[in-house]
Specification:
Blueprint lengths: L13 H21 L2 H4 L5 H6 L3 H5 L2
């Protein structure tokens, strides 16, 4: 994926930076699945259907 979450709180250690990246990425995916998934990633709309994820929350049908 090309989506890169931005780290809001700067950390001094690489471990803390990785934890914030993972946390921000998971939260970002949760937000995208409910808000701007269709608008920002129109090509990936068919992807959740092909692997059998929850279509109603992603596509909104």
């Amino acid at each position: 994926m090309k989506y890169r979450p931005t780290v809001i709180y700067p950390t001094s250690t690489a471990e803390g930076r990785n934890n914030l990246n993972v946390f921000g990425f998971s939260v970002g995916l949760l937000g995208f699945s409910q808000t701007g998934a269709l608008a920002m990633f129109p090509r990936q709309v068919k992807y959740p259907k092909s692997i059998g994820l929850n279509d109603s929350s992603v596509v909104g049908s």
